[in-house]
Amino acid sequence: MNYLKRLLVGRPLKSAENDEQKLTRFAALALLSSDALSSIAYGTEQIVVVLVALSTAAIWYSLPIAAFVIILLVSLTLSYRQIIHAYPHGGGAYVVSSENLGRNAGLIAGGSLLIDYMLTVAVSVSAGAEAITSAVPALYGHQVAISIFIVLIIMMMNLRGLRESASFLMVPVYTFIAVITILIAVGLFKIVTGAQPLHATALPGAVVPGISLALILRAFSSGSSSLTGVEAISNAVPFFKKPRAKNAAATLAIMASILGFFFVGITFINYWYGIVPKTEVTVLSQIGEAVFGHGIMYYALQFSTALILAVAANTGFSAFPVLAYNLAKDKFMPHMYQDRGDRLGYSNGIITLAAGSIVLLIIFQGSTERLIPLYSIGVFIPFALSQTGMVRHWQKQGSGWLKKSIANIVGALISYAIIAILFAYRLGDIWPFFIIMPVLLFIFYKIHDHYRKVAEQLRLMEADAKLHTYDGNTVIVLVGNVTRVNVGALNYAQSIGDYVVAMHVSLDEDIKKEKEIEAEFKQNFPDVRFSVVHSSYRSIENPIIRYVDLVSKNAMKHNYTTTVIIPQFVPRRRWQNILHNQTSLRLRMRLSWRQNIVVGTYSYHLKK
After folding, report:
1. So where does this one cross the membrane (predicted)?
2. pTM of the prediction?
């Protein structure tokens, strides 16, 4: 097992090597922007899908909707740059909301992002699977299996550490950036030179019968899903090389510029070429076919899109463990999320994210259209809270706060508007979120309450520091068959105990055998008391517990401690453990719940 782990994960890294794992801007852009950039593959499509539900003539509305999405992008970028400089230790929306709006707001932001990162992974790999099936129609119908396979690959990649995952991501991310840049450049060149005449379904300003504000708002909320992932860099500031805040802010600006250019370019080309969504072929695939034809660049586009969508899930794998770490540090999640793995990553957070994402993929059958509304509400609540928190942050700074918080105010207003739109028009899609969040908050508070009570009970007071002197120690050695294992266990018991008793459970199924065991034990260990407890129900655990409780109660009356020794043999090969029952493991678990009892294990190691 250890060899397999080393093969998959790599050699353990020393804690001193942590700084060597930090990222440059170039590497961080690949690691942390894949989610935001990949949304180009479905952002425009989500707007158009909503509009064509009325009429294909309504596609021209995607142009003004895209303009408002860009306004929101600029606002969020400026705001998150401020967050990076104000909170350079990372934590993003959770830390900003907690410090400026209170614990409840922070937990809502943190909980929303935890859900959103799982949805990020599910949406990204689902979209990647759809891109693969668009290029290879024979695979259509196997999207869920393809998605789960991609999640497992990305999980293993992240378990290998930051630097290795960033190195791996550079190829798909920068290939995608290059191919999309060429796509937009060629598409616009054909438009400018007249090689591609206008094939739009309707001219801007054309009146479309039945168009309503509600439809436009729904399309805008769907298109805003292109901005998910913008916050990831603010959560992961500690991943950057020094100066961390400066490098993180610069990387965010680069990412936002590329994202804005791609989104506007794809949306405009989609309008000009008159592309209409189809069930089995993505809009981006249709644009690629219209611009490149069926040549090598078309397949390069499909391949790079599938790769970016697949690895876009990596943004979630980068941000979720850090957020879980911050919540665990504040005692709202289990402390295991603070532990670093062999490769200095937060392995428990990575594995939890993968498991949660796979569950979502199975529940929603890998459908991006069903996942994206939940995805949007999960990210825009933290957006809104973080922007509001920054306004409060600037207010605390005193004079000039209004000027500093303009971007935050605009971002907050648009984010709250999108939340209202989703609530009003997509409630049928997002209602699970409003059930999951209260449950998640309840869990956060129960975990926090548990840690508070543990701290109260473990805190050492002056009166607790007085040591108690016991008069002796009663040791119970559990005996199954008479074997060499008993010899070492009894020797140890006699070295620590004033009164030693060997205890055996008879199952009343073979009285002759039980008497033979008793006789053999007394013959080999005549000086040790042998106590037999009978069980009529084929269970040895309950009789042992009752016996230990009785002995412990009597020992306490005489000011004695009680120790239970559980002998066991250890096979030479680890896999051989599955060939033997796990009675000792179950007994240790059961006995650990009894008070005033010390439980020890004596292990006899087999040589062959």
Report:
1. 48-74, 107-127, 139-159, 171-192, 198-217, 249-276, 296-323, 344-366, 372-394, 406-424, 430-447
2. 0.78
